[in-house]
Write a structure and sequence with these properties.
Elements lengths: L1 H12 L3 H8 L4 H7 L4 H7 L2 H12 L16 H17 L6 E6 L6 E8 L13 E6 L4 E5 L4 E5 L6 E7 L4 E6 L3 E6 L5 E6 L5 E8 L2 E8 L3 E6 L5 E6 L8 E4 L5 E5 L9 E4 H5 L9 E3 L7 E4 L6 E6 L6 E13 L4 E14 L7 E5 L3 E6 L2 E6 L4 E5 L6 E6 L3 E6 L3 E10 L3 E11 L6 E10 L2 E8 L5 E7 L2
Antiparallel strand pairs: 1-32, 2-3, 3-4, 4-5, 6-7, 7-8, 8-9, 10-11, 11-12, 12-13, 14-15, 15-16, 16-17, 18-19, 19-20, 20-21, 22-23, 23-24, 24-25, 26-27, 27-28, 28-29, 30-31, 31-32
Length: 480
């Protein structure tokens, strides 16, 4: 028997390198690591960069190892795979102190009305260099930038009128805020220096940072229902358009292909949302009409573009204060003739969504066919054709915000907890979610719960409404 085994080992060890690599390509990561310990030849074959590159791309679809250097100073797909896998394992288990650190970011003397990552780890480039920077705006009139790894404020703007909204342009490292008297300002993300100021004269505005043809713009929804297009960061007016007369324009979205702007008001059940062709509002021609169209739905309480489609839009239609609402999905396209350009919205799906709460509905999406609806303390996962594939009731109070990426979903609730769920492929239903763990945000004796949440690939930041009026941020950083 021993002779047979020795003979078998001799045959395996005599295989040429190409054959070993071909066989090893069938192994999983743990088996490949074990194989590398058998002998010198197997170790050499198992360390082949092609094997680990193939494994990386099979697991994550897109990877950029060029910025990650191993200790020897050479590009290492194996190091990338092992380190990214370790990060995901920690994000999936979420054991306090072992897998992540939590810091409380204090400094605002009012309510936090907006937060966003100015720079972060996207999972596609360099996961291991630099610290994410998050910006927050407050009713105390200041905007702050935070280093969330160190838990310190990098800069703070001078106080002004209470701020109402915040957005960022990461490509230009620009922060944009609007305040209660209609003043819109841009700030340098690196220094906090004020770059430009625009006076709208309107008490409330909704901001959307937008890039088109290598130029940056700011979409502004106003309290009187108009859409204002400004350059960014200079804040020069480009165009102005009426969307919903006398009702606040409080929902602005841009399509993944950057060709469409969605604009709607959630304040009137009879108003139809509009879609604008980006070129016509960002680069208007004097002799051409604005290219826009109303969607064939009345009312809108939530909407989202599906991120893996060029222009697939899901809208939850609010037909009065009824619990049964309709979710319609449209593919947007432009019909062009010799004399006219006309937007077209082809309905590709429509189904009823039963809602059990009257609170605001939160709608998010993943890929090209998965929709997430937060209804009170329920989280529901649908295909865009209307199949309910998962439902969760992990929170004791309503969900106020969702953060979705390729690996997980984070829900923020008034019960002062964040719930982390991870994606998995179900053989029967396809993409679905698996509930993992809670991240706690403090004491309900001092707080009213979470109000917003944002994520990058390796961290989570959420705002907490404090009873003393001085809101804080909670930053959870997953360690390597």
């Amino acid at each position: 028997m021993a002779a047979v085994l020795l003979r078998g080992m001799e045959i395996w060890q005599s295989l040429p390198l190409d054959c070993l690599i071909s066989i090893f390509s069938l192994l999983q990561d743990e088996d490949l690591i074990r194989a590398s310990t058998v002998c010198k030849d197997w170790c050499y074959a198992a360390e082949t960069p092609w094997l680990w590159r193939r494994m990386c791309l099979r697991r994550w679809s897109f990877c950029n190892v060029s910025q990650h250097l191993s200790s020897t100073g050479t590009h290492s797909w194996k190091a990338y795979y092992l380190r990214r896998s370790l990060l995901e394992m920690k994000m999936k288990t979420g054991r306090s102190s072992a897998d992540y650190t939590c810091k409380t970011l204090r400094g605002h003397n009012g309510r936090v009305v907006g937060l966003a990552y100015l720079s972060g780890n996207d999972g596609h480039s360099d996961l291991w260099r630099g610290s994410p920077v998050v910006c927050s705006a407050s009713t105390d009139g200041t905007v702050k930038a935070w280093d969330i790894h160190k838990g310190v404020s990098l800069w703070s703007s001078p106080a002004q009128s209470p701020l109402r909204d915040l957005t960022v342009d990461p490509a230009q490292s620009v922060v944009v805020t609007s305040d209660s008297v209609g003043t819109i300002k841009t700030w340098s993300g690196s220094s906090g220096e004020e770059l430009a100021c625009f006076t709208s004269g309107l008490s409330e505005t909704t901001l959307l940072s937008f890039s088109y043809r290598d130029s940056s713009f700011l979409m502004v929804g106003t309290v009187v229902g108009s859409l204002l297009v400004l350059t960014c960061p200079a804040l020069c007016e480009v165009s102005r358009h009426e969307v919903c007369d006398s009702f606040r324009l409080n929902l602005l979205l841009s399509s993944p292909d950057k060709k469409w702007i969605f604009a709607a008001s959630k304040e009137n059940f009879n108003l139809s949302p509009k879609v604008f062709y980006s070129e016509s509002v960002c680069c208007p021609a004097e002799d051409e009409d604005i290219v826009c169209n109303s969607l064939p739905v009345s009312g809108c309480c939530a909407a989202v573009f599906l991120p893996s489609q060029p222009a697939r839009l899901a809208v939850i239609q609010s037909e009065g204060l009824f619990t049964n609402k309709t979710l319609a999905v449209f593919d947007l396209a432009l019909k062009e003739s010799k004399y006219k350009r006309e937007p077209q919205a082809q309905q590709v799906a429509c189904f009823e969504v039963t809602l059990s709460h009257q609170s605001d509905v939160v709608l998010e999406a993943r890929g090209n066919s998965t929709l997430l609806v937060a209804d009170g303390n329920h989280l529901k996962v649908y295909t865009f054709k209307g199949e309910l594939v998962a439902s969760f009731q992990d929170h004791l109070q309503p969900i106020v915000a969702l953060c979705v990426d390729s690996f997980r979903v984070v829900t923020a609730s008034r019960d002062l907890s964040l719930r982390v769920l991870t994606w998995r492929n179900d053989p029967e239903h396809g993409l679905t979610l698996e509930s993992q763990y809670h991240l706690l945000g403090g004491s309900l004796q001092r707080s009213r719960g979470f109000t917003d949440v944002a994520c990058d690939y390796s961290s989570i930041v959420a705002s907490v409404e404090s009873l003393d009026g001085k809101d804080v941020l909670k930053a959870y950083t997953f360690d390597f």
